[in-house]
Specification:
alpha/beta, 6-stranded parallel β-sheet, Elongation Factor Tu (Ef-tu), domain 3, 3 domains, globular, Ubiquitin-like (UB roll), Rossmann fold
C-alpha cells in the first residue's frame, strides 16, 4: 500500500532571557502541540485560539495561522501568532514574550477527581471544589506552584478547559477553582446545567509559568481582573501560609462595583497577610463610591507614582487589561518586571 511521507519542519524557540529550544513539528501539527510532544509545556490555556495566552512572534519562516478571535492577538504586528493555531510550512524561529522559567519541562500527570462542591461566586463565576481520587504513585497530594492551572475534561467528552487554582498545595487532594460562567461556553453550560456533586472528571496538571519569583526580594504588586484574581488568590494564600513578609499590594479591577471581590474575602486575606494593601478600582462606579475610579492600569500608575520602590508586577486578566498594564510598566521602566497571564 502506498503511503505519503509526513513532512517535518524544525522549530526554534527563543525566550526573553535568551534560552533556545529546538524540536520537530510534523505534518499539520501546531507549534504548541509540537512543543508539548517534545516536553516543553508553554504558557497556554484554551488551545483553541480564544484566550491569547500562547501569543508569540515568528521571526523567520513561512507558516499558516488557523482561525482565532480577533481579540486573542495582543498585537497586529507582522509575525504575531497564536502558537495553538500556527502551523509551520518550513523551518521557523519564534520569539517568546517570557523567560525560560515560565516553561514547564516535566511529565504532567493526568488524574481523576470528584466534584465536592459547586457554589455561586462573585462576578458571574462559580466556585468549584474537586477532591482527587487516590493515585497508586502520587497518593492524594496536590503539588503545584501557586499561580498554576489545571486542565479539566468534561466527563464523557474530549472537551478540555484550563482553570487556575485558588488554593495552595495540600495533602488532602483538594483543588479549588473560580470559574467564570461564559454565556454559551461549553464548560460553563456543563457546569450550570449538568454538573453535580459526585461527578468524576479528569484533571491534568499542574501547568503554567505564572508563578511567584521566590528569589526576588522586591515588593510585589498583583493585579487581577475578573476571574484573573484566581491565581493571585493562590499566590497570596501561599504567602500567608509561609508567613512571607514581603510588601504586597493588590489591585482588583472591575467595570462595576457588583463585580468586585466581596469585602469579607478581602478581610480574610488581610487578617492572614497583615502587610497586604488593597486597591479596588471601578471603571463605572455608583454615586458615593469611595474607592479608586478608573481601570486597573490607571490604579497601577497611581500606585507607582506615590511609591519609590519598584515592584515586581504580577498581572492576570483580559488581554486589554494586560496591554494597558504593560504600557504603564514600560512608562516606569518596569517592562522586565511584568509576569502576566491572559484569560
Amino acid at each position: 500500500m502506498d503511503t505519503q511521507a509526513v513532512s517535518t519542519t524544525q522549530v526554534t524557540l527563543l525566550t526573553r532571557d535568551g534560552t533556545q529550544m529546538h524540536f520537530p513539528c510534523r505534518g499539520s501539527e501546531t507549534i504548541l502541540a509540537a512543543a508539548e510532544a517534545a516536553g516543553y509545556h508553554l504558557p497556554a490555556i484554551c488551545h483553541g485560539g480564544f484566550c491569547g495566552v500562547c501569543h508569540a512572534r515568528v521571526t523567520q519562516g513561512r507558516y499558516q495561522m488557523g482561525l482565532c478571535t480577533e481579540s486573542a492577538l495582543p498585537h497586529t504586528d507582522s509575525g504575531q501568532v497564536l502558537l495553538c493555531r500556527c502551523t509551520p510550512e518550513e523551518d521557523v524561529s519564534v520569539e517568546l514574550p517570557y523567560n525560560n522559567a515560565q516553561i514547564l519541562q516535566q511529565k504532567v500527570p493526568a488524574r481523576t477527581a470528584v466534584i465536592e462542591s459547586l457554589k455561586p461566586a462573585w462576578s458571574g463565576a462559580m466556585a468549584v471544589t474537586l477532591r482527587l481520587n487516590p493515585d497508586a504513585e502520587l497518593g492524594l497530594a496536590v503539588d503545584f506552584r501557586p499561580g498554576q492551572y489545571m486542565k479539566l475534561t468534561i466527563p464523557g467528552t474530549d472537551t478540555k478547559r484550563a482553570y487556575s487554582l485558588t488554593n495552595v498545595p495540600n495533602w488532602e487532594g483538594r483543588l479549588e477553582f473560580l470559574i467564570r460562567l461564559r454565556p454559551g461556553g461549553v464548560f460553563s453550560t456543563w457546569l450550570q446545567e449538568r454538573a453535580a456533586v459526585g461527578d468524576t472528571l479528569t484533571v491534568r496538571g499542574p501547568l503554567g509559568g505564572f508563578v511567584l519569583d521566590e528569589a526576588s526580594l522586591r515588593p510585589r504588586c498583583m493585579i487581577g481582573g475578573g476571574c484573573g484574581i484566581a491565581p493571585v488568590l493562590s499566590m497570596l494564600r501561599h504567602m500567608a501560609e509561609f508567613q512571607d513578609s514581603q510588601p504586597v499590594h493588590l489591585i482588583f479591577g472591575a467595570n462595576r462595583e457588583a463585580e468586585l471581590m466581596p469585602a469579607e474575602e478581602i478581610a480574610r486575606l488581610k487578617q492572614t497577610l497583615p502587610q497586604l494593601d488593597v486597591t479596588l478600582a471601578v471603571l463605572h462606579p455608583e454615586p458615593g463610591w469611595t474607592g479608586f475610579t478608573g481601570n486597573a492600569a490607571e490604579a497601577l500608575a497611581a500606585h507607582l507614582a506615590k511609591n519609590s520602590e519598584e515592584p515586581d508586577l504580577y498581572v492576570c486578566g483580559p488581554p486589554q487589561m494586560i496591554e494597558a498594564v504593560e504600557t504603564v510598566a514600560e512608562q516606569h521602566g518596569l517592562e522586565d518586571r511584568v509576569i502576566a497571564e491572559r484569560l
